[in-house]
Amino acid sequence: MSQDEQKALVAREALKHVVEDAVVGVGSGSTVNHFIDALAAIKGRIEGAVAASEASAERLKKHGVRVFDLNAVDELPVYVDGADEITEHLHMVKGGGGALTREKIAAAVAKKFVCICDASKLVGVLGRFPLPVEVIPMARSHVGRELRKLGAHPQLRENYKTDNGNLILDCHGLTILDPPALEAELNNIAGVVTNGIFARRPADVLLLATPQGVQARPRKL
Ligand code: 5RP
Q1: Please, which pLDDT band fits residue 40 given cuts at 50, 70 and 90?
Q2: Max Cα separation, the chain?
Q3: Could you read off the pLDDT of 110-121 as tens digits, one per residue?
Q4: What span, in angstroms and rounded, lies between the C-alpha atoms of 126 and 183?
Q5: Which atom of ligand 1 lies closest to the CA of 98?
Q6: Taking the complete model, does pTM exceed 0.90, yes or no?
Q7: Residue 199 CA, ligand 1 centroid: distance in Å
Q8: H helices within 127-169, ranges in order?
Q9: Residue 30 CA, closest ligand 1 atom number
């Protein structure tokens, strides 16, 4: 099975977690694109979706799925999103697609976070994938200096603006041994909007595509 076939498989599996007659939270990325395409087949059984990126909102609308502003929604029973890296504790690095801030907000609202990944995303320690940090433009240099003090090698994502009008610094060279602590520390730097560590609100269940099929891994409490 190719990587793309694995993504499509795990995306279809996530439909089992979607709550009927409710609004579903939808992340972003290529795995989520498969989820959106699968969701279209059951659009008559859900109220609609909240999207974590403009790109996902556009794709949902093209399929005729009603897209709600998060502020118009009282609750989000389920949020489905991919990850760039995930550990067995279901801590993640996200934001490869630049949508980390809206993804983190949607995840914070959701009762259940279902992460959908192919097997290449499962790692022992986070950090090999460059950690995205969303930064207010005027704080770019200051945040870069602070990140270097923490041992990171930040690189400005070229010709890129987030959906919120901000910049992304991709941090190379980190070995993230305590994800919740580093997540909080980075968010304390003035000018950081948020960073791509999702550990203080981890996923609740990982659906992991393997060549043998999909494994469901609930978070161990
Ligand atoms: C976007 C994300 C995505 O979930 C992450 O990049 C995974 O994407 P893909 O499914 O394309 O591998 O965090 O900001």
Answers
A1: very high
A2: 52
A3: 999 999 999 999
A4: 12
A5: 14
A6: yes
A7: 16
A8: 140-149
A9: 11
